[in-house]
Amino acid sequence: MHAPAHRDDIHVLVIPSWYPARPGDISGSFFREQALALHWHGCQLGVIYPQLRSLRHWRGLAGSERGVRREFDQGMPVLRSPGVNPFPLFHGAACRWWVRHGLKLYRLYVAEFGRPDVVHAHASLYGGALARQLWLRDGVPYVLTEHSSMYPRGRVSRVQARIAREAARDARRRFAVSASFGAFLEGYFGADVGSWEVMPNIVDASFGERPLGEPAAEGRFAFLTVGGLNENKGIHLLFEAFARGFADQPGVSLRIGGHGPERARLERLAVQLGIADRVTFLGALTRQQVAEELARAQALVHPSRYETFGVAIVEALAMGRPVVATRCGGPEGIVTARDGLLVPVDDIEALARAMRELREHIDRYDAAAIRLACLERFGEGAVVARLRDTYETVAGRAPHQARERVVVPLRQAAGQ
Questions:
Q1: pLDDT tens-digit profile of 256-302?
Q2: Are residues 132 and 167 in contact, defined by beta-carbon separation less than 8 angstroms?
Q3: Which domains are present in the chain?
């Protein structure tokens, strides 16, 4: 439990492009966790979120909430407007609709809490687009952190690319959550948009405060993976690697946290590979349940094909658990030799070897050292200090304390 810090007068409005819809929802939970960390470390901070659902999900729209919903999350004001996006296939119209709802929330927010000094938008589509409109209409400067893997995966239309470029171009500072992603964004948007700095997500403090997990019982070992059950997460490749690597070790098991369209296919694949009795599908997990599963498991495996960061990885490291991950973007800037092993994307044999090596040499990994190094890089204190200095600089003020702002250049971060 945190206690609120002494407030200074910097006022930050956070605009996430997606956000938890209810307690326990992990969609956008890292936006919430970062906002709460800033709130508890002295920023006057609020959140506005146009919570618009697509007409594609029409079955859940009947009886759904309407109008503006105002709440206080551990004292942090959150204004959201549950509603419908009637333009799922018309990206320009969808953006204008999102921004329209956001402007209404902004006016209500200012009337109650005052005009912010700076806006922090998370993802260009469409939080960045709203932040840009606030800059054009009300002169509030904004910073932008990009998180979305849609760009490198080729999932962005021309209209969306134009909207994102405009949002990135007019931001006072641009952040990417990993060095490799920042390098990609610099090439994608071009020199006219400007450079991208590295600003990682914060690992939720609760992971670093829990007791380190106990060693596995004799002859037992559990790998955990956490993520959406979709093609990009590579769970089908993990099943192939697990079947190859541990056919002769019945005490080794695999636990799968998450839900998604691939579940039925993965269940069939587990049967075909003869590993169904050692694979457990856990379904969608809350943050607390993720921590509980990490305490039970001995290691995390992250077989994704592309990631901008790797929230589950830093959560595992904060619990002292070593990691096997693919070199899919974000993990290269997180996992060191102290923390675990990295393998090429889509290389089933390499993944199998790495999992087996980690299993056989688990005693080489110092849980306390893994946790300490993780918190030094991704803990609240490290990230919040840089963000607060950023806000104060963008707002035209001297830094809150006489500390030097640390900016990690992309090339230096990529070479770590």
A1: 999 999 999 999 999 999 999 999 999 999 889 999 999 999 999 99
A2: yes
A3: 11-202+380-410 (3.40.50.2000), 206-374 (3.40.50.2000)
